[in-house]
Amino acid sequence: MTDAQDKRYDVLVLGGGAGKNIAADLARAGRSAALVESRLVGGECPYFACMPSKSLLRSARRGETWEHAVARRDEVTRHLDDAPTAAEMAEAGVTVIRGRGRVARPGVIEVDGAEYGYTDLVVATGSEPVTPDVEGIGDVPTWTSDEALTRPDLPRRLIVLGGGPVGCELSQVYAAFGSQVTLVEAADRLLAAEAPFVGDQLADVLRRMGADLRLGVGATRAERTESGLRLSLSDGGHIDADRILIATGRRPRVADLGLEALGIRPDPKQGIAVDVTCKAVVDAEAGADGTTVWAAGDVTGVAPYTHAANYQSRVVVSNVLGKRREADYRAVPRAVYTTPTVYAVGVSPVSATGLELVAAGYDLSDTPRAAVENDDRGRVELYADRARGVLVGAAAIGLYAEEWMSEITLAIRAETPLSILTDVVHAFPTYGEAIEPVLRELAEQL
Ligand SMILES: Cc1cc2nc3c(=O)[nH]c(=O)nc-3n(C[C@H](O)[C@H](O)[C@H](O)COP(=O)(O)OP(=O)(O)OC[C@H]3O[C@@H](n4cnc5c(N)ncnc54)[C@H](O)[C@@H]3O)c2cc1C
Ligand SMILES: NC(=O)c1ccc[n+]([C@@H]2O[C@H](COP(=O)([O-])OP(=O)(O)OC[C@H]3O[C@@H](n4cnc5c(N)ncnc54)[C@H](O)[C@@H]3O)[C@@H](O)[C@H]2O)c1
């Protein structure tokens, strides 16, 4: 420890989302651990992302009033009070350092003028929304999901820019509570990275709720008008609205972390490159000073979900403790919590390369459960690798798909033989029964 350092820790974690789990687990394992957090201990998920959006979606599904939905959302996010989570950290033996951290020099992090030494550094700084390059967008009223999920206002006319998970979930929320929603998506369909039927069926659902979908068009110009704002589109059309919700993607938060001093050159779009143990890839010439840098969560650009961040956290903890563990991303779920839910996992037929996929599918309307629920929406498709004869991907849209697709997640991860999968018995009447004919069809084709 140099004189300049205020304190030295075995492990310093930058970012208290998934990072808080790493700090707590390592402290419980006997390491001295500190967590540096510039905003709220707990990260984005509980306060600005997953939890408030899921709460509003549930309220929308149940037909609650907007006022009730907002009150419930604010309870779920504990009115942005992170004191209980900070207390949990203290109880686990973690020192919480409030402020923005950056690398001062190898082995030392600086936070608001104070310096802290480390042996292991974990970067878990998350991601931030990207503002699209649309002329005038800075001059009109905009929100990102952050404001949408913390403010009490219900815009009368809302443009949702982007038809990825954020755009789809929040379009459903605002359409359900009575906003006039127009969703603008540059790709030809919603959730364009997933199997086409998923985006097509979700588009139907949102249209039936009154949302206007403009697919395959880009925004070109935004300007203020007397009644609000006008967004011009690449097809020559325009939309008048009160506010634009920017949902055009996120990028890893890597700017100004000083990582270059450690021989780490993060890509602005892909984030910090990590190996299978979640150790950051470091330039060959970087000094062997006895310290190690790890990264977990959105900042790694691997899979931008809380469950993926938590998984990587567990991988980091094991490796810091010297128990080698390799991450396996073959079966990380991609769920969108609209009603009905979208659930995809493993290989997407849209982006599969180097694989010959065999596909089979089934409409949920043909299940007895659909009759019980009086809901004929949805479909499930499974994708197998012809060469190896195992499931490698799946996509579904349907009520509760986030629950009944778990067995397929396990099947992909475990590479369970089709002969066993086709022998599995599902309870009657469940949506899970839809999986049986799909597997039989796949087995016949292989
Ligand atoms: C609207 C929305 C809904 C979502 N819904 C879901 C969902 O339902 N399910 C799901 O799995 N995923 C969902 N996600 C994605 C999920 O929120 C992220 O994948 C997850 O939060 C990533 O965790 P993380 O720890 O990597 O980053 P974060 O949760 O962003 O945490 C990073 C933390 O680092 C802090 N930080 C950053 N830089 C510094 C610094 N220099 N010094 C100190 N602290 C710093 C930040 O303040 C932040 O608290 C959603 C995202 C959005 C935007
Ligand atoms: N349920 C969940 O797990 C969940 C929910 C929300 C968000 N997330 C994660 O958060 C991240 C951000 O989500 P997102 O939906 O903002 O990003 P995204 O990158 O998934 O989707 C952004 C969409 O915006 C479109 N777009 C970009 N620029 C545009 C423009 N100028 N005009 C029109 N369309 C444009 C893109 O074509 C794309 O379809 C994602 O990685 C997502 O997985 C997860």
Automatic annotation (TrEMBL):
<keyword id="KW-0520">NAD</keyword>
<feature type="binding site">
    <location>
        <begin position="162"/>
        <end position="169"/>
    </location>
    <ligand>
        <name>NAD(+)</name>
    </ligand>
</feature>
<keyword id="KW-0547">Nucleotide-binding</keyword>
<comment type="similarity">
    <text>Belongs to the class-I pyridine nucleotide-disulfide oxidoreductase family.</text>
</comment>
<feature type="binding site">
    <location>
        <position position="101"/>
    </location>
    <ligand>
        <name>FAD</name>
    </ligand>
</feature>
<dbReference type="InterPro" id="IPR004099">
    <property type="entry name" value="Pyr_nucl-diS_OxRdtase_dimer"/>
</dbReference>
<feature type="binding site">
    <location>
        <position position="298"/>
    </location>
    <ligand>
        <name>FAD</name>
    </ligand>
</feature>
<dbReference type="GO" id="GO:0000166">
    <property type="term" value="F:nucleotide binding"/>
</dbReference>
<feature type="disulfide bond" description="Redox-active">
    <location>
        <begin position="45"/>
        <end position="50"/>
    </location>
</feature>
<feature type="binding site">
    <location>
        <position position="54"/>
    </location>
    <ligand>
        <name>FAD</name>
    </ligand>
</feature>
<keyword id="KW-0274">FAD</keyword>
<dbReference type="Pfam" id="PF02852">
    <property type="entry name" value="Pyr_redox_dim"/>
</dbReference>
<feature type="binding site">
    <location>
        <begin position="125"/>
        <end position="127"/>
    </location>
    <ligand>
        <name>FAD</name>
    </ligand>
</feature>
<feature type="domain" description="FAD/NAD(P)-binding">
    <location>
        <begin position="9"/>
        <end position="310"/>
    </location>
</feature>
<dbReference type="InterPro" id="IPR016156">
    <property type="entry name" value="FAD/NAD-linked_Rdtase_dimer_sf"/>
</dbReference>
<feature type="binding site">
    <location>
        <position position="185"/>
    </location>
    <ligand>
        <name>NAD(+)</name>
    </ligand>
</feature>
<protein>
    <submittedName>
        <fullName>Dihydrolipoamide dehydrogenase</fullName>
    </submittedName>
</protein>
<dbReference type="InterPro" id="IPR001100">
    <property type="entry name" value="Pyr_nuc-diS_OxRdtase"/>
</dbReference>
<feature type="domain" description="Pyridine nucleotide-disulphide oxidoreductase dimerisation">
    <location>
        <begin position="332"/>
        <end position="436"/>
    </location>
</feature>
<keyword id="KW-0285">Flavoprotein</keyword>
<dbReference type="InterPro" id="IPR023753">
    <property type="entry name" value="FAD/NAD-binding_dom"/>
</dbReference>
<dbReference type="InterPro" id="IPR036188">
    <property type="entry name" value="FAD/NAD-bd_sf"/>
</dbReference>
<dbReference type="GO" id="GO:0016491">
    <property type="term" value="F:oxidoreductase activity"/>
</dbReference>
<dbReference type="Pfam" id="PF07992">
    <property type="entry name" value="Pyr_redox_2"/>
</dbReference>
<feature type="binding site">
    <location>
        <position position="249"/>
    </location>
    <ligand>
        <name>NAD(+)</name>
    </ligand>
</feature>
